[in-house]
Write a structure and sequence with these properties.
The complex is a heterodimer. Chain A is of the alpha/beta class. Helices cover 32% and strands 16% of the residues of chain A. Chain A has a 7-stranded mixed beta sheet. In chain B, helix 13 packs parallel to helix 16. Classes of the chains: A alpha/beta, B alpha/beta.
Chain lengths: 203, 466
């Protein structure tokens, strides 16, 4: 799937300092019944975000006016350790993307969630636990504090203080995100090589 | 002489079509399973690219996540579920993919029907848009869950782009205690290393306990590898593996079988091969397990107390949030906690051995009146075995009813939802908030612990009933 190119992202962030945020919370299973990829953002964190009668829960961060930026939606979600654990459902990443986030920051990501995110144009930025604490503290002190995520330089910076940390990403995936490419284009260019390889398999 | 390799290295390296510098491997997939939930958008992607399925014979479709477990002969009532099931059938037909839809004699949960029909073989790479694909590692395959973009990738090119994970070996030696099942072994391991303790790793399970385990048990263990964050888990194929596979409908036969056996026997970790992490546990330390929190790592021995926040690896705030959701407190004992629902089934514990274990406890007893029990076989083949072995009679005499195959209350995408606030002892794999229905509270356990809860109505040590 084509997605927007990712280079440098500057945005204030939504803080979610909870560990083990699993994909069942990001998008509950009952919302996986679509046969098209649209509208998932409305149900992002559905059961944490809404009461049973569909009224918003006032104490959930996405409903907190302190963390909404009128006219320029926040594009960075900052989560606790082991973000995205659980199911392989790509719907979780779709919901995050569809809601408007382009980057998720955490000290630790679940593998499949990380892969799914990269495949659809969300950048997962893994920072040290100490830097994650610094980000949460900075947002706590000033909810509008801005972060800059620079993919070409592989850095994440708290703009107010200049505190910065570098992050890793494999070169191939980085190139894809910067150019808006996806893996299928690459693999289709190898068709003959793949077919020859398949012939060598014993089953 | 080449350097010693692990089982994982041997299978991985045999599937690398091309290695990309500072990038992932182009990784060839032998078998691809699809189901109704994570495949429709992948097929839409193929259509918009105007690309065919490259090898339709390497993909197998089954309907399981959404399907009802009662009255499967009737049209599916939920229109959204019916729509996904119809899309799967339509896409399978259009692209020439084998499809075991609802009502098909071989229908069942994808990770149950793959092995029992001989589709899953040692040395294969197997993927599916479902994290519990790790189940198939029990055969010495590299098997893991993928996202929908990757489902599209495999349909279009039979490959995915994967960086090679790091390697972890988990060895459990010794003899298991009475009433300790494979489910207890894996719940114990996850509680020891936490729900994220194996993230970034592929696990090989080694030692007496796994060598002596049945294929059903090995599948249960590998199934839950994902619950400690691992990409997958695997166990070297041995005579137990070959005995299980021989004669299965889609397994190789005759000359082809004979040719593959020496290859399969070579699939084991060489002496001297190294792992990034090597962990060892003693079988004697494991008692029947139960979870008390909202991730599979928050579990303990069934007779034990719920630990204090400072004794677990999760942060204190997240831990307390977890206990609050469950309605439990630090230092409480799990024994005697009231139970409203019992679920036997899922790709973790929906196999014949699980029903045999459950029946061993309920035989001659009666279901507790206030407990609702959903007993859901993993496939029609398991359902038939339950009847043929007389297990159905045992269950019926004890006041239970058998349902029809599917994923059911494991993820509650069909009608089988645990109501808000209710407690379920569940043989499935996840106790996340709302996993078995919005507001549901799940205690993960083995079929023996589930059976003990079903007949007593409270969390009970199964050793008391054997």
């Amino acid at each position: 799937m084509a997605y927007d190119k990712f280079t440098i992202l500057r945005s204030s962030a939504v803080p979610m300092p909870i560990e083990n945020v699993d994909t069942d919370q990001i998008i509950p299973a009952r919302f996986l019944k679509a046969t098209e990829r649209k509208g998932f953002g409305d149900n992002l964190f559905r059961d944490w975000r809404y009461n049973n009668d569909d009224t918003p829960k006032a104490d959930f961060v996405l409903n907190n006016p302190t963390y909404s930026s009128e006219g320029s939606p926040r594009k960075i979600l900052v989560g606790g350790k082991n973000f995205g654990s659980g199911s392989s459902r790509e719907h979780a990443a779709w919901a995050i993307y569809d809601y408007g986030f382009r980057c998720v920051v955490s000290s630790f990501f679940a593998d499949i969630f990380q892969n799914n995110s990269l495949n659809i144009g969300i950048l997962p930025v893994k920072v040290s636990p100490e830097f994650l604490d610094r980000i949460f503290a900075a947002i706590n002190a000033d909810p509008n504090t801005e972060l800059e995520v620079n993919l070409p330089e592989q850095t994440i910076t708290l703009l107010a203080t200049g505190e910065s940390e570098s992050f890793t990403i494999n070169g191939y995936k980085k190139n894809n995100l910067i150019n808006g490419f996806d893996d299928i284009d690459y693999l289709l260019s190898m068709k003959t090589e793949i077919e020859a390889f398949a012939d060598t398999r014993p089953f | 002489m080449s350097s010693p390799k692990t089982l994982f290295d041997k299978v991985w390296d045999a599937h690398v079509v091309r290695h990309i510098e500072d990038g992932p491997d182009v990784f060839f997939i032998d078998r691809h399973f699809i189901h109704e939930v994570t495949s429709p958008v992948a097929f839409l992607g193929l259509e918009s690219r105007h690309v065919p399925v490259m090898f339709s014979g390497r993909t197998f479709a089954t309907a399981d996540h959404n399907t009802p477990t009662m009255n499967q002969h009737l049209p599916v009532a939920d229109p959204l579920s019916a729509n996904q099931l119809a899309a799967l059938e339509r896409n399978a037909t259009k692209y020439g993919i084998s499809h075991w839809g609802l009502g098909h004699i071989k229908n069942g949960i994808v990770h149950v029907v793959g092995p029992e029909n001989g589709i899953t073989l040692p040395g294969m790479t197997i993927v599916c848009g479902d994290s519990h694909t790790s189940t198939h590692g029990a055969f010495g395959a590299i098997a893991f869950g993928i996202g929908t973009s990757e489902v599209e990738m495999v349909l279009a090119t039979q490959c995915i782009m994967q960086p090679k994970p790091k390697k972890m070996r988990i060895t459990v030696n010794g003899t298991l205690n009475k009433a300790v099942l494979p489910k207890d072994v894996i719940l114990y391991i996850i509680a020891q290393i936490s729900a994220s303790g194996a993230t970034g790793y592929f696990v090989e399970y080694a030692g007496d306990v796994f060598e002596n385990m049945s294929m059903e048990g090995r599948m249960t263990v590998c199934n839950m590898s994902i619950e400690m964050g691992a990409r997958g888990g695997m166990i070297a194929p041995d005579q137990t593996t070959l005995d299980y596979l021989k004669g299965r409908e889609l397994a190789p036969k005759g000359e082809q079988w004979a040719k593959l056996v020496p290859y399969w026997q070579s699939l084991k970790t060489d002496e001297g091969a190294t792992f990034d992490v090597d962990l060892t546990y003693n079988a004697a330390d494991i008692e029947p397990q139960i979870t008390y929190g909202t991730n599979p790592g928050l579990g303990t021995g069934v007779t034990q107390q719920i630990p204090q926040a400072d004794a677990v690896k999760d942060g204190a705030a997240s831990y307390k949030k977890s206990l609050q959701y469950m309605g439990f407190a630090e230092n409480e004992t799990m024994i005697g906690k009231p139970v409203d629902f019992v679920f036997l089934g899922s790709c973790t514990n929906g196999r014949i051995e699980d029903f045999r274990a459950f029946a061993s406890i309920v035989k001659g007893r009666q279901k507790a009146d206030h407990v609702t029990a959903w007993l859901v076989p993993g496939s029609h083949i398991v359902e038939r075995q339950i009847q043929e072995e007389g297990i159905l009679d045992v269950l019926t005499q004890a006041g239970f009813q058998l349902r029809q195959p599917g994923c059911s209350a494991c993820l509650a995408m069909n009608e089988d939802k645990i109501p808000a606030g209710k407690y379920a002892v569940s043989t499935s794999n996840r106790n996340f908030e709302g996993r078995q229905g919005p507001g549901a509270r799940t205690l993960l356990a083995s079929p023996l612990v589930a059976a003990a809860a079903a007949v007593t109505g409270v969390v009970t040590d199964p050793r008391q009933l054997i």
